[in-house]
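Continuing from the previous page...

OK, I double-checked the sequence for Pirin-related protein against my notes and this is the correct one:
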Amino acid sequence: MSSAIKQIFPLDFQWPTLDPFLFCAHHKDEYPAGNPQMGPDASLKGRNIGQDFTLKDGWRMYHGEQVAGFPAHPHRGFETITVVTEGLVDHSDSMGAAGRYGGGDTQWMTAGKGVQHSEMFPCVHADKSNPLELFQIWLNLPARSKMCEPHFKMLWREEIPKVEHTDAQGRLVTIDIIAGHCDGVSAVAPPPESWAYDNANRIAVWTIKMAPGAEWVLPADEVGLNRILYFYQGMKMSVAGQDIDAEHGIHLASDHPVTLKNGDDEARLVLLQGKPIAEPVVQYGPFVMNTEAEIRQTFHEYQQTQFGGWPWPDHEHTHGHQGRFAKHADGQIEER
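Thanks. Re-ran it with the corrected sequence; updated structure tokens here:
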């Protein structure tokens, strides 16, 4: 095995991560046409409603009962980066903020000291299918930022920078830079309390598309970073001279340039990279702190305050037939 490759591992629904990342899940669901409630216009018989994570008929309801997705639930102590390549997500939260995003948009939410939010997957089309694909990435917060004020930032697809490479044979490689830098091109600035905000932490979140047969060199970065390349769609490729099947992750040495040679099908990949925070991590479900005492305090505060309560009419709130938008807690509205 090449010295650039530390480990190769298979991918499932939830992908292994390394500090400063806590979690990464790949959601891909072929939802049918929608009903008037924006749920799937199909029978839910045989599904474990409220806990439906089984891929049945090509889709899952997750924790939703009428609309697929994740009804109101709390977070504290980390950030969610939700990258939606296809379909739509409806966001609502305990601060009264809301949004609809998808088709290449990313929402970057800093949970900080505590927020409730819902992430529903509305079937907005009643006359055709409603496919959805997204990646949800959890990025840890350092101890100094775990109790910051919660908020979210939208990275709209029109604003996310792309880098395009054409190899010697004219085959295209496209990199969407959600966080970090590539070939002198920088991502939109992340939220200010994020570990990604300081360039010294070398956070990178990239999605990569390689044409059949394309070749590209993933550039080296600093030594000592955690770097994983997730090859989630395609057939085969060569990574640093090692043949890799699709649906595998590759833990790479961060200070080695790595040559990627794609096989005969278009390949899709995700890169996560960053300097470790290197602090204790104590996680209990949706809460990530540094000590057991902080987790106990989090439960106590959530029981007392519900992190602001729930200002929406139901826990599976959707936004009708609006277009893409974001309404922030301060009243600012963005529309796309």
